[in-house]
Amino acid sequence: MATPALAVTPVSFSFAGPAGTTNVASVSRTSNGVSITANALNFTVAPGSLTTLSQLTAGTRQIQQTAPGIGVNGGASAPQVDTNTPAQREAILFTASKAFQITRLKLSYIDSDDTLAIYGVNADHSLSYLGFGGQIINGLGGSAAFSHVGTNDGTTTLTLGTPTAAFDRYLFTTRVGGDVTYLGTKGQGYRIDLIAGSAVPEPESWALLVLGFGVVGLSVRRRRRVATVLG
Q1: Is the domain of 17 the same as that of 81?
Q2: Is 119 helix (H, G, I), strand (E, B) or coil?
Q3: CA-closest candidate to residue 152, choices 104, 187, 116
Q4: What is the Cα Rg of the chain in Å?
Q5: What's phi and psi for 214, nearest 5 deg?
Q6: Which pLDDT does position 94 carry in this prediction?
Q7: Does this model's pTM top 0.70?
Q8: Domain encompassing residue 205
Q9: Torsion 169-96-191-55 (CA) sign
Q10: Are 108 and 211 part of one and the same domain?
């Protein structure tokens, strides 16, 4: 008897805010019963040297909410997520109520030198780099594909050919510090408009499924035994 897979739950979190600019401590969204909260963080190490969440601090950073999406208040290119200034490198930490895989992103205010780095946060606070080492606007390589490519200050929707591993916390920043000349220019930044993906079943759900199949199997064996005795 084949074991059916537990259904995943599609989630889509839009971070578009009201017209104008609002600075808030955090932004929360809910989709299909899964909630997610965005918080702004600051760090000083080189972006490629991030290995643990303890390298980042909340400091005085706030989420800057705009009509397209969210960035970080402060730094060189507000309201984007940027790493232009070594002492003010920025990131956004997303904390979800359930682990989910990212399958699609919508980013805005993307220029030709902007890069994207996404990390999954493990239970011990260590960071797992999930790829996307190239330019956002010209192709990230690896498992990302574009459904639309904008120009400078444009909006780009990224569809991941291979979804990320499932995490309940994700860290978004850039791959290259803006203080480092990259492709002849300086400046790394983008806003996050939307994150979409699939929430995965909880371990408890898998345990219940296995237990259920065990009970069904035991019941089938008992029926066969009774039928054999009566026959």
Answers
A1: yes
A2: strand
A3: 187
A4: 22
A5: -65, -45
A6: 98
A7: yes
A8: 201-231
A9: negative
A10: no
Q: State in Å, rounded, how far the first CA of the chain is from the last one.
A: 25
209, 157: one domain:
no
Kindly state whether residues 45 and 90 are assigned to the same domain: yes
CA distance 56 to 45: 9
Residue 139 has pLDDT above 90, yes or no: no
Asked whether residue 56 is domain-assigned, the answer is yes
Residue 143 and residue 231 in one domain = no
Q: How many structural domains comprise the chain?
A: 2
- CA-to-CA distance for 68 and 192, rounded, in angstroms? 8
On whether the CB atoms of residues 90 and 54 are closer than 8 A, the answer is no
Q: Across the strands, what pairs with 31?
A: 34
Angle, alpha carbons 175-131-13 (nearest 5°): 90
Residue 193's pLDDT band (boundaries 50, 70, 90)? very high
In three-state form (DSSP H/G/I as H, E/B as E, the rest C), the secondary structure along the chain is CCCCCCCCEEEEEECCCCCCCEEECCEEEEECCEEEEEEEEEECCCHHHCCEHHHCECCCCEEEECCCCEEEECCCCCCCEECCCHHHEEEEEEEEEEEEEEEEEEEEEECCCCECEEEEECCCCEEEECCCCCECCCCCCCCEEEEECCCCCEEEEEEECCCCCCEEEEEEECCCCCCCCECCECCCEEEEEEEEEEECCCHHHHHHHHHHHHHHHHHHHHHHHHHHHHC
Mean pLDDT on 190-204 = 88
- Model pLDDT, residue 216: 47
